[in-house]
Each structure stands twice: as structure tokens, then as C-alpha cells.
Amino acid sequence: xSFWHYLSGRRAQLLxxxxxxxxxxxxxxxxxxxxGVAIGVLTYRREWAGNLAVTVTATLLxxxxxxxxxxxxxxxxxxxxxxxxxxxxxxxxxxVRNAVVGLRGVDPSLVDAAKGIGMSRAARLLxxxxxxxxxxxxxxxxxxxxxxxxxxxxxxxxxxxxxxxxIFRGVSSLGSANALNQVLAGTLGIIVLALLFDAMYVLIGRxxxxxGIRG
Length: 215
Known about the structure:
This protein is mainly α. The protein is built from ten helices and no strands.
């Protein structure tokens, strides 16, 4: 069977897997973004705290994905729970690091000016510091999303949702008629999703980052 015939015959299943893959990555990135920015906000003012946050999240990233899933399965079982936990943990580093760097890079004179006109600390954070730190934070989100696209495929090991199931089926049946088609379909599907997500982030950047800040 040719690759195009395989795609035609498996269209419904591939679209379902692609939707589940994209949905899992998107939802995990929302959680990782909220948690990562919160960690950055809580730690960036103290150098040791910010460095510790970056070091801890970087250490999590060094754990191989299969090993992490193997550790989570006895605790959380198979399926969505270990997949979501692993993806959120892996997505933290780029967001935390860029949030800390972005917030530390805000011009202190702008913060002092906001303080001088009577803004509270919370108002300065929400109206001055976070908007100015948004470009590097968005870059961190883009990097994390691209990374999670690939890692989410490994989650098929834990019976997680997504295109990784297509790849794993192909790998486990190497030598059969459709093994290569399965691996290729899953891989290309992930690449297409990664490109679509990145295009979405480019659009978000154009809509939310003023031209002067984009440089």
C-alpha cells in the first residue's frame, strides 16, 4: 500500500490522533505557562531564588522522558495522568527561565517612574513589568511547545493520547506492510502540528508585542 493510500484509508483515525496530540500539548502548555510565569514572578527579585528555580526545572529536563513516564506509571497509572504530568514538568524550564530573564531585564527607571506616580507593587507588575517581559516569555512558550510536540509522542509508551500511538504501532510491527507508513504518518503529523503552533505564536506576537519592543 502506498503512503497516500494509507493516509486516505486511515484519515479519520489520524485526524483524531492529531487532535488529541494538539489538545494535550496545548492544555499542558497552558498549565506550564501559568505555573512557569508564577514561579518567575515569585523568584526573579532574589538572584539565588531565580537561579534555584531555573536549576530545578533544568534538572527535571535532564530526566529521559521514558524514564520519567516509567516512574509516573506506578503512581498515576496509564493514560492521560502521567502524560499530562510529564509534559507540564518538561514545559516549565523555558518558561521559567525566560520569565526570570525577562522580568530582570525590565528597565528599573520605568519601574521607579510607575512607583512614583503611585502604582502599587501588583499594578507595577501587571501593567509595567509583565508587559515588557512578555516578548522573552512568549519565546520561552514557543520553545517549550516545540519540545513538547516531540515528547508527547513518547507518551504513547504510557498509553497516552496522540500521534505517538501511530509511531509506536509502526515501530512494534517493523517488517509488516504498513509499518513504515505508520511511522511516517505519525512523524509528519507531529511536524505539521509543530509548524501550525509556531505560526500561531508568531501571530500572537504580532498582535500583542508593540513594534518598538519587537525591534
